Amino acid sequence: MRLNNKVIIVTGSTTGIGKAIAERAVAEGAKVVVHGLEPDWAVDLLGELGEENAVSLIGDLADEATAARLVDLAVSRFGRLDAVVNNAAIVASSNLESTDTVFLEKLLRVNTIAPFLLIKAALPYLGEARGCVLNIGSVNAWSGEPNLLAYSISKGGLMTMTRNLGDALFRDHGVKVNQINPGWVLTETEIQRKKEHGLSDNWYEDLPAMYAPAKRILLPREIAAAAVFWLSDESGPVSGQVMELEQYPMIGRNAPKDSSTIH
């Protein structure tokens, strides 16, 4: 087992990519702190993972106290902390005209500042374990789509933080910090979001080649498979790196004006 006996916090793990990472981590021998905003989903996931392998915390990452609560729960339940996966994020459409200060600050608080706070709270334990941080970003960090301005800004900030701390924390504490930038992923929330944009119930079965040369988009379990490498000892001393997971080598987006196509 590649993550045997490691204790890992995964934010935003009651659904989507975070859930897939939590499931894969437990399958690889880890103990996991599940986090989200949906109590019922957390209960269902704990039932799947087993209470001996996972514990959950429901809390808003916009609340600064949530980071410390997650760390305290991991250590009190499992006795240590080896890794943090900063996966939780708000995905919301906006452009220059529709983005005001309140909206931008809301996305930054959850998508960029919350990961910073969790890393800071976890650092004493991660340093003791010579552990790691894995940030889940987005290919939109490089420039972003026209209608994902605030989201792209927040993910750009996260990527810079990964590069910066990947050097500083590894040098001073032996803690690695890396990042995965997924492209378009078929999560439960993405399916619903596109339906709300007016697409059909099975919109993901007929996608333009520009966005899906493989005739489909990425699955959460495929992101989770990559996450295991970064969370395991297999990644060695590599730190401060960003892995792009998309179907084609495209930095940024030149999306059409139809917002239903954004991801």
TrEMBL record:
It holds the Pfam family adh_short_C2. It comes from the Bacteria. This is Oxidoreductase, short-chain dehydrogenase/reductase family protein. Belongs to the short-chain dehydrogenases/reductases (SDR) family. InterPro entries: NAD(P)-bd_dom_sf, Sc_DH/Rdtase_CS, SDR_fam. Transmembrane segments: none annotated. Gene3D superfamilies: NAD(P)-binding Rossmann-like Domain.
